[in-house]
Amino acid sequence: MPINFTEQSTLHVGIIMDGNGRWATGRGLPRILGHRAGVEAARRVVEAAPDSGVGILTLFAFSSDNWRRPPVEVDALMRLMAVYLQNETPRCVAQGVRLEVIGRRDRLDAKLCAAIAQAEAATAPGRRLWLRMAVDYSARDAILSAARGLPELSRDALERAMGPPLDLLIRTGGERRLSDFQLWESAYAELVFTRTMWPDFDAAALAAALREFRLRDRRFGAVPQVPVYRQQAWLD
Ligand code: FPP
Question: Topology of 11-69+128-215 in CATH?
């Protein structure tokens, strides 16, 4: 039975996968080995997500500001992403994962664009998990570009043009900022920051973040859900 991505029972989780560089340098390794270990962490989390109640997973793989990194690191990241897409496509197909890449394509090299197109086409029927990888992604640019595509600007129209709203946003690596990721979609996301470096993140860490999420009282600007007897007690 295909999942309905708009169902409340399936969560949209976004992850800012931070800490690869520190994980590597802390071990006396080059940063790129941290990114490689980060790919393994992504694989573990994608595998664990559907059985954890996650229907949509948006991973921040490369921000539009990451072009500022040394060219050797940028090249390595681009190659890693192309290899990841090639290697993971059969696994995604087998696991019912639909893979989509969000962000700009015009600055990516032709090989990576081809790997993206191939992975997206092959995994399109997947309904267990909608995996969105943000590559050359800027939330501010995404909002601008969606707004520019609308015949008439309204909040509802823009809401429809943007991606699905996030329920939970996790950032690993100890920093507490959004770094231009899913700014519109995170309007009512619960935020979980963890000191775990991304390469150490696994199914147990995802489960811990989801446990914390489920303890939160999501009010969306309304008042707390207080049982009637307790409201009465305040009035007495
Ligand atoms: C942040 O760590 C991580 C990135 C900029 C890249 C994230 C990429 C991966 C996990 C590999 C590619 C992923 C997939 C799924 C193909 P950082 O380098 O900023 O770490 P630091 O803050 O410790 O320096």
Answer: Undecaprenyl pyrophosphate synthetase (3.40.1180)
Q: What is the pLDDT of residue 8?
A: 46
Q: How many CB atoms lie within 10 A of CB 107?
A: 10
The dihedral sign for the CA sequence 183, 189, 195, 200: negative
Residues linked to residue 62 through DSSP beta bridges, in sequence order = 135
Q: What are phi and psi of 84, to 5 degrees?
A: -60, -45
Does the structure show a pLDDT above 90 at 160? yes
CA distance 109 to 130: 24
From the list 125, 103, 130, the residue with the least C-alpha distance to 7 is 130
pLDDT exceeds cutoff 70 at 232: no
Q: Residue 7 — very low, low, confident or very high, per pLDDT cuts 50/70/90?
A: very low
Q: Is 19 in the pocket of ligand 1 (CB under 6 A)?
A: yes
Q: pLDDT value at position 111? A: 94
How far does the centroid of ligand 1 lie from the alpha carbon of residue 172, in Å? 10
